[in-house]
Design brief:
With about 220 residues, this protein is α/β, with parallel strands linked by helices. About 25% of the residues lie in helices and about 30% in strands. The protein is globular.
Length: about 220
């Protein structure tokens, strides 16, 4: 499932626009989304994720809903063996091409439907999911729980989510969550996991119209004991 990395549309109203493609299957939806344009996201790393992960020692990492690979490429550039997963083969193809262009052997990608994906248990040091939210069918909590099983003891799960829209908008769509809501929904065993951070953090953003705004991210960081 594709995560909307580093892309923010500024809305100055209280109701989210209706997505005309919301009736499509997840694969159809995201293939159309990527196929309709040469690039969907900025290609830059999610700044909030980078700030959190930048404090961790590099190791192996899986990124869920990697899209065109912005986060995975940054992780590889910072010493991680990074593997991105996304439902869109078009997005994965673009990510691979960018990794090849940069000579990043540590960035690899797989096109897969995460609802059917089962990771190797305790196989990586980190799982990241940036803006792993969707307008179409997405069993988000189940996928994140499955991904958490891939984290070995001493590793982390980092989930960055949209918590609210731009300042001046009262809209909080159905896909938006707080970090505490995320932690409660995941409900990972407390004898195996410690919540290191569960809070909301603001960051500057620039919309398609060039106007600056402030967005709020929900930041959940969990440590596998």
């Amino acid at each position: 499932m594709t995560a909307p990395h580093q892309h923010s549309t500024t809305h100055h109203h209280d109701h989210a626009p209706v997505d005309p493609n919301a009736h499509l299957s997840p694969t159809e939806y995201w293939e159309k989304r990527y196929g309709d344009t040469e690039r969907v996201w900025s290609g830059r790393v999610n700044a909030t994720m980078a700030a959190v992960v930048g404090e961790l020692a590099p190791g192996s990492v899986i990124d869920l809903g990697c899209g065109e690979g912005g986060d995975v490429l940054w992780l590889a550039e910072h010493g991680w063996e990074a593997h991105g997963l996304d439902i869109s083969s078009t997005a994965v193809g673009r990510a691979r091409a960018e990794a090849d262009g940069r000579g990043l052997d540590g960035a690899t990608f797989t096109a897969t439907d995460l609802s059917a994906w089962r990771p190797e248990p305790e196989s990586v040091d980190l799982v990241t999911a940036s803006f792993f939210q969707s307008n179409v069918a997405l069993d988000r909590a189940a996928i994140l729980r499955a991904a958490a099983s891939a984290v070995r003891p001493g590793g982390h799960l980092v989930v960055i989510s949209h918590a609210q829209g731009p300042a001046g908008s009262s809209h909080r769509g159905p896909n938006m969550v707080t970090a505490r809501e995320d932690a409660a929904e995941l409900d990972l065993p407390s004898d195996q996991w410690t919540v290191e951070a569960a809070d909301e953090r603001s960051r500057p953003s620039t919309g398609h119209d060039g106007q600056s705004s402030e967005l709020v991210d929900a930041v959940l960081v969990m440590l596998r004991r």
